[in-house]
Amino acid sequence: MPIFKTPFNGYSVKFSPFYESRLAVATAQNFGILGNGRIHVLDLPPTPSTPISELSSYDTADGVYDLTWSESHESLIVAAIADGSIKLYDVALPPSNNPIRSFHEHTREAHSVDYNATRRDSFITASWDDTIKLWTLDRPASVRTFKEHAYCVYQAVWHPKLSDVFASASGDCTLRIWDVREPGSTMVIPAHEFEILSCDWNKYDDCLIATGSVDKTIKVWDVRSYRVPLAVLNGHGYAVRKVKFSPHRRNYMVSCSYDMTVCLWDFMVEDALVGRYDHHTEFAVGVDMSVLVEGLLASTGWDELVYVWLQGTDPRAP
Amino acid sequence: MATQSPSPPNSTQDQPQNSATELAQATDGDQQVAGEEAIKQISTPSVFVNSEPVREEQVQNAVKFLSHPKVRGSPIIYRRSFLEKKGLTKEEIDEAFRRVPDPPPSAQAPSTNQDGPVKSSSTIQPHAPGQTLQPTAASHAGMISSMGPLKPGRFHWYHAVLAVGVLAVSGAGTAVLIKNALVPRLKSWIRKVVLEEDNALVKKIDLKPSLAEEAAAAAKAAAAAAADVARASQEMLNSKNTEKRYFEELMNRLDVQVQEMKSMTHAIRRLEGDQHGASDTSLKQPYTNGKAEFDSRSARSSSPPASVEPSVAPHPKSYMDIMAMVQRGERPPNVRDINDLPPNPNQQPSNPRLAPRAKPWEGGHAQNSSSQVFQSQVNGEGSNSMVQDNGVMYQLDGDSSVPWWQRKKAQITEIEDEIKGGPYSVRTNAQPIQSSWVPPQPPPVVMPEAAEAIRRPKPSAQREQFADHQSVSHPPDASDELQRITKISESGGAVEINGGESGLSSSEIQEEQSTQP
């Protein structure tokens, strides 16, 4: 399976929603503590034995914690930077024209960015300044700021079908569900006893949402009966850094953790752990499942490697 | 903020429609989908709202919590956050905030309840000093007992100091009370009794029997008085015991808290030292705070520790080196000064050349239209810019290379369908994947020849099947997979039918190939 070596520590990887073979990686120098950052736009080779090629890369003054592809323009990338800025990159323009926008509103590190897949015109960013901001591509300033969390917001994710609903996971141990038409959050779920690092909506069932936490578990919740989780997935040895539901199968999800593994789960089954990939040699921090190619996974970690592989194969196989 | 929210949706809803009109056939599909979504939106958001009635018990607990003087000093957002973590809904929290009145009267309100038992034990004679001490002792006692329910709240150092001081004062108060009130009263009682006795002695002629009687009476009275005193002191002692018990309990809990707070402050001190480096505020705390946070979480929840105790993941050595370097205020040597501001802040993004592709979970007609649009665009583009059509070039160009991820993927899903063998799968039940073909005893690797032998595909029927096969929400049939594999094996890897996956791309490919000359 092809791999890519990044000069800095990997933080996030995302497949392009337009091109099956394209993905973008967010990296930060010195583990993101203090240093520069870089965004890589990669292209998968036709044969698995050749390495992944880099289409372009963009340097930033501070580490890049997360990025997302635009759903409206196939060449646009939105990046969340550790200095709190949100930057917009256009892959189709020459590197000297990039970034094309830089929004400086968050007062602390911007930790996550997500693009609305139904509306295709807006994106939300989550920051360690406890706020979530809503943006559109055409406006120079944020459209709205959602300030309710009592601690860092680690991730904010749009609902895959309802274009006004999104969820946020925070270090104040709550998962909040928001509607952009409402002034505040519509639901508060105290999902874990410890910080919640990630959340994701189920793509096939409107009411299911999963959270990954520092307490090493992943919980799947039905928002209609949110007092008790639908499923609790144990198996990671350390904090769960990211969870993502499969775009192709209702019951599958993938997660990556500080225990250096990427795990595949089927939460409807008693023995939920379906696959475990331990190819990383440092914290596995970013994982993504391709929307266009079923079963294609990518992950990145602090070991400065990006792996792309098919579910069921060995990521390290040549 | 609320007034702003209507306008952005209106303005942003215009945009997708504008961009949609640019495309050939996507408009209808998109608008229909948008329309349906709009209808859905009106009805479904109710799912994402707490619809439970307000729970009175929770609200009362919250009111008690909020009335606590210590809590009153904390920022409102922390109070809300605490209550949310306890599982209260927004309505319950709002109701509790409504019920808690302004600060001064409510602080005394719980303490007046506690005045009762304390007062009854010391009803003797409220002397002036005793009076001033009493309410304070009562209020302190009240605070201690109302601190009981505050277990998972925030304990700071001054709580511990305050508790100790409070109990010392209450002990001193009772001591003073006894000294001031009780003892003089006792003395006067005894003196009175003795005086009465003397008087009785003087008055009575019949000394002996009367003396004896009166002595007995006096003794009885003294005994009664002593009994009263004893009872009073017993009650005092009891209350003191209960206070002591509360105190013990509190001290035990505080000890636990202190232990964990110590470790937490050590961790924080260490990490804060790292983080507040001389130069930069952009140091990334919460990962390290993530570690510190779950120490503090275990400190805050004095309930029994969770069965899954989060532990700090071991960080790489170079990570520790860099943290140490930053803590010393040094900048790591490999960091460059980079100007990452946009060279032209008004640079327009390049026009999108591809239509947005429908997601596998959306299914339906939207996919049809966009796939056709995609195809027409691709054909129209011809051989322009490699870069954009990169994702499509593989299918279009004449040579026989199939992207490795597509070909292998077919095999992989088949393997998954058949066995759950291999090093990676752990599941024991077969995931129902709507396979119409169930293998008898599946081998770990599918031999194309064997597969061909089992299945005899009909190419034309296969094509039609693919062309009609538009709905995406279920994964491909195993039979289709096999047929595709046999196709590949038959043609020696050449692309006839692309070993594609379900959904959009496979149907696209089919259509593209069918339109190729």
TrEMBL record, chain A:
GO biological process terms, semicolon-separated: protein import into peroxisome matrix
PROSITE patterns the record matches: WD_REPEATS_1 (PS00678), WD_REPEATS_2 (PS50082), WD_REPEATS_REGION (PS50294)
Xref: Pfam families: WD40 (PF00400)
GO MF annotations in UniProt: peroxisome matrix targeting signal-2 binding
InterPro entries: PEX7, WD40/YVTN_repeat-like_dom_sf, WD40_PAC1, WD40_repeat_CS, WD40_repeat_dom_sf, WD40_rpt
Single GO cellular component term: cytosol
Keyword annotations of the record: Cytoplasm, Peroxisome, Protein transport, Repeat, Transport, WD repeat
Protein task: Receptor required for the peroxisomal import of proteins containing a C-terminal PTS2-type peroxisomal targeting signal. Specifically binds to cargo proteins containing a PTS2 peroxisomal targeting signal in the cytosol. Cargo protein-binding triggers interaction with PEX5 and formation of a ternary complex composed of PEX5 and PEX7 along with PTS2-containing cargo proteins, which is tranlocated into peroxisomes by passing through the PEX13-PEX14 docking complex.
Membership in a protein family: Belongs to the WD repeat peroxin-7 family.
Protein name in the entry: Peroxin-7
Organism, scientific name: Cephalotus follicularis (Albany pitcher plant)
Lineage: Eukaryota, Viridiplantae, Streptophyta, Embryophyta, Tracheophyta
Automatic annotation (TrEMBL), chain B:
GO biological process: protein import into peroxisome matrix, docking
Region of interest (Disordered), ranges: 1-47, 98-137, 271-316, 332-384, 453-517
Family: Belongs to the peroxin-14 family.
Primary location recorded for the protein, binned into one broad class: membrane
Species assigned in the record: Cephalotus follicularis
A GO cellular component annotation in the UniProt record: peroxisomal importomer complex
Domain Peroxisomal membrane protein PEX14 central plants stretches: 154-272
Domain Peroxisomal membrane protein PEX14-like KPWE residue range list: 314-362
Residue span, Peroxisome membrane anchor protein Pex14p N-terminal domain: 55-99
Protein name in UniProt: Peroxisomal membrane protein PEX14
Keyword annotations from UniProtKB, A to Z: Membrane, Peroxisome, Protein transport, Translocation, Transmembrane, Transmembrane helix, Transport
Topology in the lipid bilayer: Single-pass membrane protein
Skewed-composition ranges (Low complexity): 299-314, 367-379, 496-517
GO molecular function, one term: signaling receptor binding
Pfam family, one: PEX14-like_2nd
Cellular compartments annotated: Peroxisome membrane
